[in-house]
Amino acid sequence: MTPDQRNVREYGIENDDSLDTEAIQTALDDCAGEGGEVYIPPGTYRSAPLRVGDDTTLRVANGAELRFVGDFREFPTVESRWEGWDQDGFHPCLYVADAANVTVTGEGVIDGGGSYWWDFVGTPESEFPEGLQERLAEIRSGHRQDEVSTFTVRPPLLQIDGCENVTVSGVTLRNSPFWNTHVVYSEDVTIHDVSIRNPPDAPNGDGIDIDSSRFVRVSDTHIDAGDDAICLKSGKDEEGRAVGRPTENVVVTNCTVEHGHGGVVVGSETAGDVRHVTVTNCTFTDTDRGIRIKSKRGRGGTVEDLRFDTIVMRRVACPFVLNGYYQTDIDSDPKPVDEATPNVRNVNFHHITAEEVESAAFLAGLPEQRFEGISFTDVDIDATRPFDATDLSPAMAAGYEQRHGIFCKSLGSVSFRDVRVTVPDGTPLTVEESSSVLLEGFEAMTEKEDETDAAPVVEAGGVDRLRVAGCTAPSDGGPFVRLRDGDASSVLLGGNYGPMADAVVSAADAER
């Protein structure tokens, strides 16, 4: 043990059933005043929530397990941000707040004891343990609730709040009561070589939530989550816009995701903006969605300058989701654009493979705010998995009939360069009410039962400009592009293979 290392066993830990909170917290407080390392040696430790201060390293040794107690009475009330709003909630299990130069490391396990808290979800409050209903009423007094606000029943496992220069490495973080790891109002945060594990059915069991924070790096981390695996947020609605703190300059690299509602997700809390994000060299397996951007009217904020590169997805219901209609109906009239109108622009997908998926992509902006600068380059999607493999809708947007191919609506500009899509039936690409669409080297394969009545490769309606280059006209003489309305003057052809001009038809021509 080094001179600045404090072994928690030297602070009076007893080998009995009593909680070890006082010993561990005293060691942490000593370090917060002087700097150094708190060492948790091999063994099992039970604790109420803990707080880590400045200049402290918390090292959980290989063979050590820090378990947080399942008893709401041990969790005081603190104010932080919860699901996009600044308000009260239960003290996080491990809380790093208003601190600098902190490290949580080791090869041990930090367990949130989530099952105790998960049982409260869906349970009538009249059946809660004595005192919990009154406690919740106190916490909720004067604060907002909406249909997804379940935070007040459960604390996160690790929350990094208002901090600078924090590193989390090596440890296993599992069984979080609520979100597993929440980085909020912080900067210069590194999460490296961490294992995050929540059961697939853990309610709100997000892996890592990066919330109004900047200069965050997530690398070489494995996540098995009960909700979104890695999620980027920046506040909700009017309050989030007033706070105005973006999530920006984020890198996610060399990560593996197993289960979860999404591999990497942005939103739905986008009010303070999310920008300058790079995700590279990752795999997503058995997640509901792959790369998912979600917002809706009322949120506001801009999501921009995102790049997703070198990613492999497998058994994902829908690998690409850009959804401006989260939990609302896509068939709606335009509304006035104001500060509450969300926007998405400059999102690039490059060198990505998606296998055994159900729906290739759902990309839908708003009629009053078309999403701009969406590009796909060197992307291969095999969307031949049956719809009933998961019974999931592609994007949690009402008024949309699920299909295997790519669906685009209300986009300012979208491009598909060297993109390959395989579907069992139907149209591989549908574009509606969009400004500019570029297809360059776009390939599609469809298992057609009736070659004389083949679906088109592309169906377009309300598209101002459609450019087709480097594509091959169907060898059977079927349509490559079918226009639902208007004539072919909106289509620019160049450098294609085969009689492409003959393969561009209107819906009226197709019916004759």
TrEMBL record:
Residues 6-46 form the Rhamnogalacturonase A/B/Epimerase-like pectate lyase domain. This is Glycoside hydrolase family 28 protein. It holds the Pfam family Glyco_hydro_28. One of its GO terms (molecular function) is hydrolase activity. Belongs to the glycosyl hydrolase 28 family. Keywords: Glycosidase, Hydrolase. InterPro entries: GH28_Enzymes, Glyco_hydro_28, PbH1, Pectin_lyas_fold, Pectin_lyase_fold/virulence, RHGA/B-epi-like_pectate_lyase. It comes from the Archaea. The keyword Hydrolase applies. PROSITE patterns: POLYGALACTURONASE. The keyword Acetylation does not apply.
